[in-house]
Design a protein that fits this description.
Layout (H helix, E strand, L loop, with lengths): L2 H13 L1 H9 L6 E2 H8 L3 H13 L3 E6 L2 E6 L2 H14 L6 H4 L2 H5 L1 E3 L2 E3 H13 L3 E4 L2 E4 L1 H9 L4 H6 L6 E4 L6 E4 L1 H12 L3 E3 L6 E3 L1 H11 L2 E2 L6 E2 L1
Antiparallel strand pairs: 1-3, 2-3, 4-5, 6-7, 8-9, 10-11, 12-13
Helix pairs in contact: 2-3, 3-4
């Protein structure tokens, strides 16, 4: 199958409103049963089963049996990146998807396994402004200062770089229309923020909430300050 045929097949799968609703609901990296995905897409369980089969065959999803249920999640981080990028292409700050989304999602959310939204963009901007990362073609690499910065946070950059996944790159943000940090480094950073109690997931959503600890962390580590409502960023 050549590139244009593959692209056409992928586009036809995403073009269906029910399948796109299923994929979008899994963009936070969680696993969900078929019954919940059917309700999300507002379709019958039988129809959902047919859609899930097509998405599994295409590699857009993967499934795991837990007890009597099968739980579905995105097949790879690449699927999440593609969905975010497509949404950014057709969306915008003043119209489209961003305007229809809850403010908490626009402020901070997970993009599969890394941080997106206003907060994700702000962190990337600070890393670039402080020359902790630098562009190398279509990728980012750490400067010596960046290696020390992430090392001081006890984030295993060598481990992140050793995998088959891209280490760090600009991932186009659908709500901000500019990049946030994607890749293995971004996933490790999200894990660090969660484990340090700086941020917390909101149940039933991929929105991210900044804790009181997180406010101090953002200020001390990244030089990012939130206003008292926690939804605007000043630097």
């Amino acid at each position: 199958m050549n590139a244009t045929t593959s692209l056409s097949k992928a586009a036809s799968l995403i073009a269906d409103p029910s399948r796109s609703a299923i994929l979008w609901s899994l963009l936070g990296g969680e696993s969900r049963p078929a019954s919940e995905l059917a309700m999300t897409a507002n379709i019958s369980p039988q129809t959902a089963s047919n859609h899930l089969k097509l998405l599994l065959e295409a590699g857009f999803l993967k499934a795991e049996a837990i007890g009597r249920n099968r739980f579905y999640r995105l097949g790879t981080p690449t699927v999440g990146v593609a969905l975010e990028s497509l949404a950014a292409t057709v969306g915008g700050k003043s119209s489209g998807i961003a305007q229809q989304s809850a403010p908490e999602l626009v402020f901070a959310r997970t993009c599969y396994d890394h941080l997106a939204g206003e907060l994700g963009v702000a962190i990337l901007n600070r890393l670039r402004e402080r020359k902790l990362i630098r562009e190398r073609g279509r990728e980012y690499e750490l400067s010596m200062g960046g290696q020390k910065f992430f090392g001081d946070l006890r984030i295993d950059c060598d481990g992140a770089a050793a995998g088959r996944r891209r280490f760090a790159y600009p991932c186009l943000d659908w709500s901000q229309r500019v990049p946030h940090l994607g890749g293995a480094l971004a996933a490790a950073l999200l894990d660090w923020l969660l484990s340090s109690k700086g941020i917390a997931r909101q149940k039933g959503s991929r929105a991210i909430r900044v804790t009181d600890v997180g406010r101090r962390t953002l200020s001390d580590v990244f030089e990012i300050k939130l206003n008292r409502f926690g939804s605007a960023i000043s630097q």
